[in-house]
Amino acid sequence: MNPLQDKECHETRRTFLGKTAGGIGQIALGSLLSASMPHAVHAAADNLGSGKLPHFAPKAKRIVCLFQAGGMSHVDLFDNKPSLAKFNGHEIPPSVKGDQRLTGMTSGQSAYPVVAPLWQGRLCGQQGTWISDQLPYTQSIADQICLVKTVYTEAINHDPAITFMNTGNQQPGYASMGAWLSYGLGSENKNLPTFIAMVSQGSGKNPGQPIFSRLWGSGFLPSSHQGVGLRAGSNPVLYLNDPPGINRSQRRELLDDLAKLNHLRAKELGDTETLTRINAYEMAFRMQSSVPELTDISQESPATLADYGPEVHKAGSYAANCLLARRLLERNVRFVQLYHRGWDQHIAISRQLPNQCRDIDQPTAALVRDLKQRGLLEDTLVVFATEFGRTVFSQGTLGDPRMGRDHHGRCFTVWLAGAGIKSGMEYGKTDDFCYNIAENPVHLRDLHATILHCLGIDHARFTYPFRGLDAKLTGVEEANVVRGILA
Amino acid sequence: MRVLTCFLIVLICQHGFAAQNAQEYNRDVRPILSENCFVCHGFDEAAREADLRLDVAESALADRGGYAAIVPGDLEASELWRRINSEDEFEKMPPPDSHRELSAEQKETLRQWILHGAPYAKHWSFIRPKKSPIPQVANGEWPRNEIDHFVAAKLDQEGLEPSPIADRHMLIRRLTLDLTGLPPSAEEVEEFANDDDPKAYEGLVERLLASPHFGERMALEWLDAARYADTNGYSIDGGRHLWLWRDWVINAFNENMPYDQFIVEQIAGDLLPHPTDAQLIATGFQRNNMVTHEGGTIPEENLANYNADRVKTLGEAVLGLTLGCAQCHDHKYDPITQRDYYRMFAYFNTLSDVGLDGGGGVNPRPFIEAKTVLATGELPSLQERIAAIHEELRHLKPDVLAKWEENQQALLRQRGQDFALHSIKLLKVSTPNSGAGFDIEEDRFVTISQPPNFGAYDVSMRLPDGGLPITGLRVVFHPDPAAPEEGWGYGTLPQQKPGLDSDAIGKGTFVLTALAASVGSVPGDQVDLHRLFEIQRVTANSWREDYLPKQVLDARRINGWSPEIESMGPVHITLTLAEPIDVGQTPYLTSHVNFGHPGKLVGGRFEFYAMTGIDEDSDLPGEVLAVLKTPFGKRSPQQSELLQRYCADHAEATEPLRIELENLEERVRVLTEKFPTMVMDESVEPRETRILIRGNYASPGEKVTPGTPAALLPPPANANANRLGLAEWLTMPTHPLTARVAVNRIWQMLFGSGIVSTAADFGSQGTWPTHPDLLDWLAVDFVESGWDTKALVRKIVTSATYRQTSATSQTSTVLELDPDNQFLARGPRFRLPAEFIRDATLKTSGLLVPRIGGPSVNPYTPGDLWREVSHYGSTPSTAQTFFQDHGEKLYRRSLYTYWKRTVPPPNMVAFDAPPRETCSVQRATTTTPLQALVLLNDVQFVEASRNFAERILAHSDHDKERIHWAFKECISRMPATKEFDIVTNTLERERKRYDADEAAAQSYVSNGESPRNEEIPPAELAAWSQVAALLMNLSETVTCN
């Protein structure tokens, strides 16, 4: 082997493994660049916690997170109890309400009357899980999913709560779940990013609470691990399209010239990072065809399209994003993150919530069924989550069409399905008011630990050195895998 | 043995560092203990196990009832040694559940350490640095200054040789990029390469240090550290105004403000005697933290977060300490107690800031209004140009006017052709923040009975299918009995034409700030942001001069359409679409109707019509229409004057001039008027500070007063317990951290990596310096020089170390021996920061507008990325929808790009620019495909390739010379023969291609808003643009070699 090639190997690997200004030894196995490297390289990297990844045989190879941004009402949709009808209109007992803090939106209210779920529901599936009639399609997949009714968080407002759920910390600056997995597990597709994020707008409340790139950001991890936004419209990935006046073969020839020039100079200078850059240009070129191929749904069968519902034809909708999620998962994209905005029903919940539910119900169920039919659910984890639930008591006056529900982090419902998860079960119990946890609390740290577990990762050993700490997705406090929901 | 131990300790205490080869506690032992033991046996009392500390000798060596953790010199008697070698799961240390394990090598280090007497030392960075003697080195020829002696000594030790000096081309490129963030021009390269003055390099250094771009370049790192941005962050992320502070930073570097003063003014400028406006502006440093105005958040919690961020930033940016780790408990690794933390917190807890503040585009308090610190030397030239533009607009070229009139006459001839309106059936109306007070009547009217202060309504409808293509959309506002004086809306505006109708002022009206629409095959409750109609023309049957119909296309709340108050009956606005709607394909239309002005300027009753044919209205005012109807020869001089003025103010042909005028007039205001800027102050009733138990704002503990960490040096005797006292402490010449941290960051900026590679962490978990004596020498010298930043930069860049080539020959082993270039046996090499990649491209293309400072600008961005995720329509805050600037604002340096924290500029983020939410003192340098997509496809870079091509063509008539010059201009060197051949081939190929495809050529050269040189045939320009793009995409172009 000639010395330069030798150096190339060394340097290229090293560049793959990342180079920061500070040389902390960050692993920039960019979600975007790793595919051409043997998988073993990820695991062999020195800084990947204290062991190889995955730590044990994973049940799930990939994950899709269907995030309902704004705070979905667990009371109305998943956690009904007979007692609520009985207490409807009565003040929530002080012993239940306790002295925990409320947001500034309801802390000044003079009354806190209980509002029973605004719609009927029914007991579904073999276990008789109660699910609201606002979610008829979700009712039909009750046997596929595992409802966790006792997730809780300390945060009571959107920014800290949604940041907590997505990055494991209430404050900005931390890596998102998808970035962690890109860093830890790398990619199995050499033509698409490892971590894709998609945003849709709710029709119940527009605009919903803002969301932000931090939620799919890389935080302290190298920025190559950040989620790549996949957007509706003509430029699904920013800057994807060749500019007007350029065609594909022309671009190909220009990149060939560029590679030749870069190779010559790299040799001259002993600059092997340039070799990495040549690879990056090649992957960019491949993405220019793989992304349009991905977003072109014209080959989907009419039956499949019908399953996802009429909005599947509207690019950028939650339904369209669900279908894209399946197409991404099929292509072995590691982490697909959807955000659907508009769940923040402080006002007019009776008017807004049905619309929000209609947006997501049919496509969500279709995605789970579609994954199952294609055999993908066996090694794909589906997480249906939100940043907090909503209060059992009303925000505003009972009976007023403007009445809504405030944020509630003490307990709320999240569901999981697919690889590694017991299907058709409920986990955890809240009290008669859906206000406090009665048994089996699941902190969102525990949820993170469980998600990592499904992917073959021990959360306690999955660390990244940052500011003197071995930072973890699950943070510094204790976190436990929720064994009770594991298959 | 004992003598040696004592000697070592003395040496360590005196010099901070011991001889390099012997084992050394701070370098070799502490990191092992810190990483593996300190969490339970360290500084944090609450987490301490078995009452044992291994971070201090007193506890580690203490008798624990017949045994000790460590018995110096005696392995067998040392419990630590037994435990780390134990196989018993209950005895083994570190315990198995910690997931930590000592390697054989680490155990050997500990073995040696105990055997040699287990000498402890104070952590190196807490000891005041001293200048150690300059090492004598074997290669006496090589060193140019002190730096090189230290570096050479290390190279000797490692058995490495320095690399040769870089050639002149590499040198001038590196130096110019490093000191200004811009590449040198071909001419500068040429001149320097041929300059035989032995002091040519030093001359170049001086020239660059004096460049106004030096301050911009230096500011970039500090803006990252200070988390500077143009928005408040957190969820709603509304706009703020703090650019005066950013410009203060640039100015401070350009004026070479001593670093101690730089810190004092930013920490406590307001507490200096008789502070100047500039000193008040400086205090914006600790107002750069994010603030939230999310409804429902709790002010006390927010304020605690703000102060926590200030302490964290102060720690990482100035002290190199992860102070933030002591927010919830004592620091696990460094001697910072939680109490120390809250005493630091207390310094900033005296501000009069408010926990929920900063919405509506108004700065969070406290803020002042002040003038910029920037020099105003450009005023005369600005005014001259402004006058010239006015002149040009007053005397339009006859052909401009003629062409405009021809166009208008053509439009007027078509006006109303086949015009028809078709009522649209409404399906649904929604608004985010209300459940009542709006409705649909008779399937066609939207009625608003409870007007909000500002309100956004999405109206979903089914289009009528009359077989004809729909060419436009009309919204009709009816007089509404519910509105004041049966007006069209609920608010009032001042009367515009005084004296006409004094009653009109009470009449209710509205301001329509945005009107947009999209269609789809299924009904959409919300307008589809990805498919908004392109609008060709906006007309109305009535408008006020201050609220023009076309302003509904600018979605911001700052403007909009409002009818003339004197108008009677219904008023309407009509959008003509660029592409007609095919109702068969897309029968559902959704329209976004936004009333964004405060004061209930909301419409009461309105309906929608689909238009077929051509709009019956004109966007011209009546008096202009009257002139146009008058035959040319019969117009009065007043009429001609009116027409000429209207054309100057509205024609497309004069738009570039108007944009330039607007930008220049704004620039004059920036230099001469006062603007709001956030500052620190002392509250009349300062909040008291308590230790927050577990960091929780709702669990206040013991009360504390402001103070500095006890483990560091005490503050000056006369220092006050306020921010000024803090600043004085930070800048004490004897402070062990401040100068080291500053010097290290500048070293990192120039070499790509610091002497301490963890620039934010000089504590126990930070890395050991690669050249400890050099770091200390530079730190002491920095203080002795009067904290002279330019002198420090000069010292580094004139060293032989810096001047080495970064190239390595194929036979060299240096890449294997030192892949990270820790020992500096070669020159630095790193990818340029995001901002400098764009700046370099702008400069090379000739587009760069090198103005310093001013409000941030919004250059090209692919679509409205803000609105996709923002609270647009639901908040009075600004920065919720993106509005691109034009003219020179597209070509300013990248540190002036508007920084919205939740959606930072995507072409910057792709190249590792941090989001500026929190302090950042190190950027990663990744290499990703997204970067390639930016450089190849972002219109900013595509346009630059075309402009660079024009410059290349202008340079010479010969292709060979053109290519030579292009290489020099772009990468500061001549092409090698092979490179030349490749590029020549590119050129010939692209010429052929574009000669055969004129349309493609035309299309390529039309990218971007800058005017193109029409004299160059499009095919030739497009072909050269490809050559330009090729060069601008070279790895070398984005690298500092």
From TrEMBL, chain A:
<protein>
    <recommendedName>
        <fullName>Sulfatase</fullName>
    </recommendedName>
</protein>
<dbReference type="InterPro" id="IPR017850">
    <property type="entry name" value="Alkaline_phosphatase_core_sf"/>
</dbReference>
<dbReference type="Pfam" id="PF07394">
    <property type="entry name" value="DUF1501"/>
</dbReference>
<dbReference type="InterPro" id="IPR006311">
    <property type="entry name" value="TAT_signal"/>
</dbReference>
<dbReference type="InterPro" id="IPR010869">
    <property type="entry name" value="DUF1501"/>
</dbReference>
Automatic annotation (TrEMBL), chain B:
<dbReference type="Pfam" id="PF07583">
    <property type="entry name" value="PSCyt2"/>
</dbReference>
<dbReference type="InterPro" id="IPR022655">
    <property type="entry name" value="DUF1553"/>
</dbReference>
<feature type="domain" description="Cytochrome C Planctomycete-type">
    <location>
        <begin position="37"/>
        <end position="97"/>
    </location>
</feature>
<feature type="signal peptide">
    <location>
        <begin position="1"/>
        <end position="18"/>
    </location>
</feature>
<dbReference type="GO" id="GO:0009055">
    <property type="term" value="F:electron transfer activity"/>
</dbReference>
<dbReference type="InterPro" id="IPR036909">
    <property type="entry name" value="Cyt_c-like_dom_sf"/>
</dbReference>
<dbReference type="InterPro" id="IPR011429">
    <property type="entry name" value="Cyt_c_Planctomycete-type"/>
</dbReference>
<keyword id="KW-0732">Signal</keyword>
<feature type="domain" description="DUF1549">
    <location>
        <begin position="146"/>
        <end position="351"/>
    </location>
</feature>
<protein>
    <submittedName>
        <fullName>Planctomycete cytochrome C</fullName>
    </submittedName>
</protein>
<dbReference type="Pfam" id="PF07587">
    <property type="entry name" value="PSD1"/>
</dbReference>
<dbReference type="InterPro" id="IPR011444">
    <property type="entry name" value="DUF1549"/>
</dbReference>
<feature type="domain" description="DUF1553">
    <location>
        <begin position="722"/>
        <end position="985"/>
    </location>
</feature>
<dbReference type="GO" id="GO:0020037">
    <property type="term" value="F:heme binding"/>
</dbReference>
<dbReference type="Pfam" id="PF07635">
    <property type="entry name" value="PSCyt1"/>
</dbReference>
